[in-house]
Structure formats: C-alpha cells, structure tokens
Amino acid sequence: GKRKHNIAQHKLDEAIALIDALPGWNVAGTVRFSSSEGGSKHVFGKGAFEEIHRDIRRCQNTTAVFLTLDMLNGLQLSVIQKEWGLPVYDRYTIVLQIFKHRAQTMEAKLQVALAEIPFYKSRLVGVHKGTLDQQRGSLGTIGGGGEKEIEVKHRSLQDKELKLKKALSKLKAQRKHLREERKKKDLPIVAVVGYTNAGKTSLIKALTGSKSLEPQDQVFATLDVTVHAGLLCNRMKVLFTDTVGFISDVPTALIESFASTLEDIRNADTIVHIRDVSHPETVEQKQVVMETLRQLQLPPSLTQNVIEVCNKIDLLPQDEAEKLCDEDGFAVSVLNGDGLDDVVRRIHDQVIQATGRTERRMRIPMNGEHLNWLYKEADVTDVQPADGDSEKLQVCALMTDATYAKFKAAFKSKRKQ
Ligand SMILES: Nc1nc2c(ncn2[C@@H]2O[C@H](COP(=O)(O)OP(=O)(O)OP(=O)(O)O)[C@@H](O)[C@H]2O)c(=O)[nH]1
Ligand SMILES: [Mg+2]
C-alpha cells in the first residue's frame, strides 16, 4: 500500500486469519504492496520487490512468505523463492494447507489430494509457461529441467489424478444413494451457505440442537457437508446441510474439487445464505457467495428464492442493526437468538412453497392406522377429536400432492377388501 492504497486493512486481516488457522504458524510481520499489472515474473515492480526483500530480512524470524494473491505460476514462484531465499505461499497453497490440516473424512481427504494436483502440475510446466492446462506435447521445450523427468512426473500425476477421481466417484455414488434415500423419505432439504466464518454451523446448531456441530472462530472450520434433522414451526421435519465456507480469490480449481460437496446445494429445496454483517467486507463477501452460487449453475427456482440472513447484529451498534431490519428483513444474532423465529417462519413458508406441500385438513378413523401413516409420511401439525363424531379425528397435516395420493391409495384399497 505504500504505492497505491488499494489493499485494504481487512484484506490483510483475512490473510492473517488464514495463517492463524494453521497450527504452529504465526505472522511475524506484514507489509502492503500492490502487485504489478500483467503478471511479470517478479510479481511486483522492481522497487517494490527489493523493498519487500529488505523488509523480510529485517524481520529476523521469518521462515516463509505469504503473498495474498490468487495463484502464482511456476516461474514467479521459482524466481521469488530464489531471490528471497524463503518458501513462498499464495492464497491457493495456504488454503490447501488449511484444508489438508482440517480434512477428516475420507472424502474431504481425497478432495484435498485432488485439489493439490493442479498446483503440482503448474509447478512442473510453469517454468515453461505457467498455465495449468498445458498439453503434454508442449512439455518438451523446458530448458535444463530434464524433459524426461518432467514427463515422467507429469504422467505419474495424471495417474494419481485418475485414481483419486475414481475413488471420489465411488464415494459420490454412495452419497447419491444416500440422497435418494433422503428424497424417498421426502424430507425437505435446506442448504446453508455463506462466506467462511459467517455462522453457518452456529445457525444450524441453533435451529436443530445438533450436538455434533462445533462452531469455531476459524476459517474453514467446516470442510464436510453434514446433514442435520430439525423441526420447523408446525413440527415440519427438514434436513439442514452445512457446507464448506466460501472465500474470495480462491481459484475455481479448488472449488471444483469440492464440487461434489457443493452438489448437495443443488439438491436442496431452499438455500439460506448467512452473512456476517459485522464484517467490514460483508458486501464483498456477499458478492463472492453469489458468484460461487452462480458458478454452480443452480436452477433459478433455487437462486431466486435465497433467504438472506444477516448475522452477528450483536456486534453492530443498535441503530445500524435496526436499519438492517428495515432493509433486508432478517437481521439476527445466532449467538443470543435474536430474530431467529422470523427466519424459521420464512424457511418454513419457503420450503412449503418450494416442495409443493399444502396443509390438508382431514377426518380420519380413530383406530390409529391412518394417523400412524401420516406421522410417518407427512408432517402432522394438529390432531383434535372431530366435531360430532366420536369415532373420528380431525387432523391437519402438511404433505405434497404425491404423498396425498399415496395416502388415498393406501387406504382406499383397504376399504375395498
Ligand atoms: N458475535 C457473534 N458471533 C457469532 C454469531 N454467530 C456465530 N458467531 C461466531 O462466529 C464464529 C464462526 O461461526 P461458525 O458457525 O463456525 O461459522 P461457519 O460459517 O460455519 O464457518 P466455517 O465452517 O469456518 O466456514 C464462531 O466463533 C461463532 O461463535 C453471532 O450472532 N454473534
Ligand atoms: Mg462451519
């Protein structure tokens, strides 16, 4: 920022949060400079490059440098590392480190491993051109690097990639199976998305009381999609899916490797987008989320009905929080529960609309069979003794047309027998 002050403080804060997410890593010092246009091999202008080098040397305990830039190519990386004499990380490699550290399930581990491949590939061919999708045929021109060796390495990376993809697609098939089971049960699915650290896990925990959820003041605390059952008003059962947080300037390659995770969003009936409105960059974060959702090419019925929840209003001055309430509807604090009732009602209404559920009132026999069926297949919202008929119950239940047809079919054939 000594030249152009276009790198804001919160960008730096985010970078520091990324480093803090790695155990044993500490930020020894920060400097702000703009990278030069056009992606030169030194990344920065000559003066800046040397000035940064001087700053690094002044900071004695430095063991690595993190440039908060999207992704450096192989050439830039080798030039900078050589001249500064330290390992250099970009946002891609830092996020990879975090993912690697956090990945717990087999699927997350495989996905991280897959996300690493474009990085390794770019280091291989980067010396030549620095693109990810270099064709194998053009590898021959790398000077000095030992063509054969590079080709062998490249091929083994391809093999590894293939193996990982196979293993992942197996898991994906399992996941699909699970999803179909879920669909069969016809439970509505609510996907909670948002920028990393916005409060997704906290929200789901608050709405479902799920004990297995651990919100953390960390970026990328959640790497696996997890599903949690909850009850909305009228005792409607829904499934909430918690998703990996979004972040700006992380290349699509990384997002793609988590695509199967994000596929669960596509299967949702409703999307809840939770934002940390106390964050100075909340507007930019919203744009990142919207852009990521756009890249997922979701059906318009989903994207047009995203429920926006403005979280952490407890950290805002009262007047600002009130203004939000007027503008965007759902200003909440998941922390102290403010505003959550309205959100629940909205999710409830939206789910009913999206899944074509209607509340039906019906009179059913007392004997229990009908009611048991309804409890199992639909959402029973009210049960009363029927007026003027002591043998019957008056029941309200939420269900889709398909479920209603099943209900009628199930009991019609019984009557005939
Ligand atoms: N002050 C305040 N903090 C909150 C609120 N909601 C959540 N937090 C805190 O924000 C941090 C992040 O919450 P999480 O629920 O883990 O966020 P997340 O969106 O799941 O984050 P990732 O999984 O890392 O993407 C935690 O320290 C929460 O306690 C709120 O309403 N107010
Ligand atoms: Mg989370």
From TrEMBL:
GO terms for cellular component: cytoplasm
Q: Does the keyword Zinc apply?
A: no
Could you tell me which residue ranges the Hflx-type G domain spans? 188-351
The cofactors required by this protein are: Mg(2+)
UniProt cross-references to CDD domains, sorted A to Z: HflX
**SUPFAM superfamilies recorded for this chain?**
P-loop containing nucleoside triphosphate hydrolases (SSF52540)
Q: Which UniProt keywords apply?
A: Coiled coil, GTP-binding, Magnesium, Metal-binding, Nucleotide-binding
Origin superkingdom? Eukaryota
Residue positions annotated to bind GTP are 194-201, 220-224, 242-245, 311-314, 333-335
Quote the protein name from its UniProt record: Hflx-type G domain-containing protein
Q: Which organism is it from?
A: Capitella teleta
